[in-house]
Specification:
alpha/beta, 8-stranded parallel beta sheet, binds N-[3-({4-[(3-aminopropyl)amino]butyl}amino)propyl]acetamide, binds zinc ion, hydrolase, Histone deacetylase family protein, zinc, HDACs, Ureohydrolase_dom_sf
């Protein structure tokens, strides 16, 4: 299968995050995408192409316009206040506070448009975010034009980004934008299968009231794990969307046998939905040696994930999400893709 990749992701680096009481270098490193790209080349997965430039009109159907307008201005606003380093929020509008009045200053705005301190900005961040969005849409176009599958080597990732918030290393929800684009191109139904270790809270929020995108999410139990406040099994969608959101929360220590049971169930339900296309939010932070995760998958398990997805016999877009065991991220992510190819 073909891969779409842009070197512009590299400008998003030296980010920091707040972790266990300390400001630390971010886990979401540029090396991640480079190691995956090199693995794609090493196994001869297929051609690697550059993305086209896309406007943000499709993104504006899944994100609020004010949020999309804010993202490109962050670094300029930050430096205008004499700051350097990484732009990071420190105050958020939680329950009982006003979430409907955007503040005027950068510190207020960063918190207003995020849910954690996991989506910092440096000078090259917006260009990288935009390139990641373009990578997703260009790979979606390959599938629309008849490829059985394509790989969007997105960085930064997207599944924690909601209609009006960044967080968890995510800014634009690349998988959601791609799903929306397939609908705009004539698809009747799109399924999103999210296999990242963390719950795709942004993706769920975006599509929660919609029946044209069914979301299946396998992840660590929010009772134990980040992002904590969404992803329980009783969240099934609402209104028109009732029954079109399915969560599979799993406890710390989950191994492949248990994980694959959930995956089999998700794939069976997904098949019943009879979508025109599947968008896979591909995270490999389920790996046993992932530095921020608590599942027990091993490298040999990833091709099996790909096999099961292939068995759906549907056009498939893989969108890269998380995975922080940098050394093995190429083997594991591309393992899913080679498993799919058979
Ligand atoms: C796309 C994606 O996978 N985003 C993940 C964001 C996770 N952010 C929270 C990280 C918390 C890490 N704390 C674990 C302590 C390990 N020493
Ligand atoms: Zn993750």
């Amino acid at each position: 299968m073909k891969t779409v990749y842009s070197p512009r992701h590299k400008g998003h680096r030296n980010q920091v995050e707040l972790n266990s009481g300390a400001i630390v270098p971010g886990f979401e490193l540029p090396e991640r995408a480079e190691i995956i790209r090199r693995r794609v080349e090493a196994v001869g997965l297929g051609e690697i192409t550059a993305p086209e430039e896309w406007d943000l009109e499709t993104a504006a159907k899944v994100h609020r316009r004010d949020y999309l307008d804010f993202l490109p201005t962050v670094w300029q606003r930050w430096t205008a206040e004499g700051r350097s380093g990484s732009a990071l929020p420190f105050t958020w509008p939680t329950r009982g506070l006003r979430g409907d009045v955007p503040p005027e200053t950068i510190d207020g705005l960063l918190g207003f448009y995020s849910f954690d301190a996991g989506a910092s900005f440096v000078e090259g961040s917006w260009d990288a975010i935009k390139s990641s969005h373009d990578v997703a849409l260009s790979a979606a176009q390959l599938v629309k034009n008849g490829e059985r599958a394509a790989f969007a080597l997105c960085r930064p990732p997207g599944h924690h980004a909601g209609s009006g918030f960044a967080g968890g290393y995510c800014y634009i929800n690349n998988a959601a934008v791609a799903a929306q684009w397939f609908l705009d191109q004539g698809a009747a139904r799109v399924a999103i299968l999210d296999v990242d270790y963390h719950h795709g809270n942004g993706t769920q929020e975006i599509f929660y009231e919609r029946a044209d995108v069914a979301v299946f999410n396998l992840h660590a139990d929010p009772l134990q794990e980040y992002p904590f406040y969404l992803g329980h099994a009783d969240e099934r969608g609402t209104g028109q969307g009732e029954g079109f959101n399915t969560n599979y929360p799993m406890r710390w220590g989950t191994d492949f046998a248990r994980w694959d049971e959930a995956h089999a169930d998700a794939c069976a339900k997904l098949k019943q939905y009879a979508p025109d296309v599947v968008v896979v939010s591909l995270g490999v932070d389920t790996f046993e040696r992932d530095p921020i995760s608590q599942f027990k998958l091993v490298s040999d398990d990833y091709p099996r994930i790909g096999r099961r997805i292939e068995a759906l016999q549907l056009p498939t877009l893989f969108v890269m999400e998380g995975g922080y065991a940098v050394e093995e991220i190429g083997i594991n992510a591309v393992g899913v893709l080679t498993g799919f190819e058979g």
